[in-house]
């Protein structure tokens, strides 16, 4: 039997906060189709979401515990969570992948919130969603994206403990860089070696690992590895989202292979100083745009192609809010953020640096072991 | 610069087949928001889809090459693909995450197909999709789910070569089971050890690894590992979806720890014989439901909680079609399928077995090294 990642009290607290927000917004229920939201309220954690075949539904009423409306294949695992009302359908089904069961469940509510705004997706066939709303002619569907952001962006002590653990694992992996990476090694081998290192250090999984290498910088920050071999003068960047118990770290490190040019050293120092400036500004009551300003002041340039200089972190590699010029979300104690300044170096090259912090009443706590201003040389 | 997984000829062929199907269905363009579909037509491969922040769009016109409408952060990587028309927007954006740019692009077409049926999702905010369709009052959106299934379910020679490689890696990993797993080992340690083994054998990543262990069977087939320790009499099952170059294997193996009861031995033999029966029935012209019948005849029972006895395999862990009683999809040469019989053992326990095959004109090719009827003992 699966072991819950949290005691029931954690889920009771999440539900209590959600139901308070629902009352404030006049919502009778929340409706979800996506992994993070189902897991947030139930603890239901499985890699089975990799299969697009079956939809999964969760209804969170304004009073009472959440109701799972899920494929039969998930009944055994869902029974290990704190939920009591688990309704299952046979899936795949020739004609009705849960729509009737879901419509029955939702028909009890007049106004239903679901995330349809920024960063949301509809993880069920649009055809089925249209059928559902047609059957629920008297139900109003409202956007609950902001409500969910407000709930999820502030982490509990238990969530922060898990985030601290996986960030520690990431830091321990990067600390071994000098023994893992070397000139002449292909990027594919670099990635493979680092994945194995993170698993050895205690990560459950490494769902995200991207990076690049090049003379004096790299071209982007989202690419898979190639057969390109590390050469003297390269800057190697690895950005990792490893997980443990379903929580992510998300930070990167830069390494100079053989040695670094003055330009690369200056860029690295500027990136680290931008993080320091953002951390100094990260207090309850300041805003995401304040952190953005703190970083761009140090960088002397805007964010370029990446579009932001950090974001929320937790059950997903990236969560709301975004550290942009226009995101005025106010920081609150126990928000977990990435600070991720990037800098264009001309000639199509760039560098990026990233740390993970918890907003505290005072100086933030670094979850990742902060990098030095001096770029490490391998 | 990223190295394409395929030469341009592969994408030209995919486009040619798609455009033929679009003409037959009277579609002026196809529109996609999801990873597999974007990658199918472009070769754009990145783990950055882990971040839910930014939507990504692809438009495939009835004539001419696909058009990417994507966040600026992806421009550099998309430029390494065969696409020429790459339109980018700044993201996240305060008010317009690509909707205007996408509406401009789609306004050229009268009838646009998109997958809205079985197994599909809408990976963009529903609010933005509604805005898009409101702006395109003269554009008809039609369901292209079946069209996409017909295209993707038959694999090219190059795709089959990649699938053969990753299935070989999975088989090599399982072949070392006796040296990897042992009595007293926790399931968490079993999973960690097997992930590392698959990476060592050459996998790029192990996005899917589930399993279970128990006396005489296990409770479900989608659970993450626990601290439970392997004991004599346990049946250990591991089901892995490892990837290389973006293609998945998906098969499992059962191991008896210490020894197996007669019941477990009989169940394992029955599962392997069910695979053999399905493989014997797997010929061009037979249907998914024929394979289902071949397996249930051997098993002496229906599929139970899982809902099907196999599925398509390729760029995703599970693809259409499904091996069910009601899926009458006709098998065609070069379809890649998993054969995945499962059996209830009473007392809430079950066992499952899975192999990966290519449908050939004659006997199918096994991509996974087939298991013996006798359950292996560790």
What can you see in these coordinates?
- Two copies of one chain form a homodimer.
- Chain A is of the alpha+beta class and 378 residues long.
- The first copy, chain A, has two domains: 143 residues, Creatinase/prolidase N-terminal domain (Creatine Amidinohydrolase, Chain A, domain 1); 210 residues, Creatine Amidinohydrolase (Alpha-Beta Complex).
- In chain A, the strands form four sheets. A six-stranded mixed beta sheet of chain A has the order 4-3-2-1-5-6, sandwiched between helices. Chain A has a five-stranded antiparallel beta sheet with strand order 12-11-13-16-17, covered by helices on one side.
- In chain A, a hairpin with a 6-residue loop joins β16 and β17.
- The radius of gyration of chain A is 22 Å and the shape is globular.
- At the A-B interface, α3, α9 and β7 of A face α3, α5, α9 and β7 of B.
